[in-house]
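Figure caption, in words: inputs first, then the predicted bound structure.
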Amino acid sequence: MANFDVVFIGGGPAGYTGAIRAGQLGLNVACIESRGSLGGTCLNVGCIPSKALLQSSENYHQVKHKFSEHGIQIGKLEFDVAQMLKRKDGIVSGLTKGIEGLLKKNKVTYIKGKASFVNPNTVKVALTDGGSEEHTAKNFVISTGSSPIELRSIAPFDGKDIVSSTEALTFDKVPEHLVVVGAGVIGLEMGSVWMRLGAKVTVIEALDRVLPPMDGAVSVEMKKILEKQGMNFLLGCKLLKAEKSGKSLKVTYEQEGKSKDLSCDKVLVAVGRRAYTDGLGLENVGIATRKDGKIDVNHHYQTSVAHIRAVGDVIDGPMLAHKADEEGVAVAELIAGKPGHVNYQAIPNVVYTWPEVASVGSTEEELKAKGVDYKVGKIPFMANGRARCFGETDGFVKIIADAKSDKIIGAHIIGPNASELIAELVIGVEFSASAEDIGRSSHAHPTLAEVMKEAALAVDKRALNF
Ligand code: NAI
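Bound structure (NAI present):
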């Protein structure tokens, strides 16, 4: 007899959310987590702590650079990195304890330890507090997430100076010169934190643009804005080596076929993340991982062993907490015999720089490559009264609609509060709204959201305030 209906292996956004949903549906559920706290990368060493530091550093930046424009004079301005880190840690521990409470409320058994398959129906858990135990289940869900990619042969992590995003969240003082490898989401977010607090930041990126998968217009604007804030970019440059050189670090990179180097005190390697399935005993159940570490699943998230499913960062798709939690819910519903489903076209993507970047659906480049006929409406925040009152006029809203049906197929925002504004267009995509639907919806005045309405009207070349 299996002692659980379903066991989630991994208590990140995919695993704990799926466990809660499975509990709501009346299943006998367990969630096994080895980290010692729930919430996964997102809550412990990712989304939440980085946003806490982004907020602290942005507040400092605002006071230092923007308050005088409002007629507010501040005397001596100081900041305390230790207090920023303490605040961040407090937010994280409060939220992880909250998840423990949610598991309890939904009658999910929380098992602290590292699980490994013994056979297709049994996992052995090496318990965090010592010893081990075995559990059987009718269904298993692998939700073990991902870990930072290490460039082991050219820039191995040392946990102190050449680091991943995890350690870049814990620097106890502001680096003098931080070199970031990779102009992706983590590179730009963590680069922004330390730049705002006074570090010189140089970003080395192999491709010729920042935020490579984002819409081209957003990439161009983002680079321009971050350069204005002081960030340095070495685009089209490949990292060759990062190593200790006396008291500092020597970073060697290739630019236009020539080898160059620079000196710094910290290197953040942010070149992507890799599915994490180490020690899971997949070989004992006959589930293969791909070269990129991911597990193949069908549209019901079933692996090659039907009652063992996988969701979140270990399978295809963007490595995003909210994509993972949607999959957690869907997999729980499927296991309970319900029609669980995720609309991947309606998953937003956000970068928490300032201004923020947010998008949903297709980019113009993707649509061109597919030969789709589309129309674009693009309005700058400069044309918006509220943005001017905020003193935040950088950026734009770009809405892409199908040329024939007018259905919204992509939306790209770079600007103040883009992370919140995108929700309107996510709902639009989810409900198959046309650009005209958004353009005819009343938006409160004065709000930043009016830029969305104007961009929707601009799709039909009838913007009213631009
Ligand atoms: P990423 O995939 O966003 O960016 C990595 C960048 O590194 C790419 O631009 C790539 O061209 C570049 N690169 C790769 N190898 C290189 C080399 N040898 N030299 C120079 N450049 C090189 O990966 P990132 O920023 O590490 O983030 C990992 C994952 O975490 C992403 O998939 C992202 O979805 C997720 N994440 C999401 C956040 C959010 O939603 N706000 C925040 C942080 C992470």
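The first strand starts at residue 4 and ends at 9.
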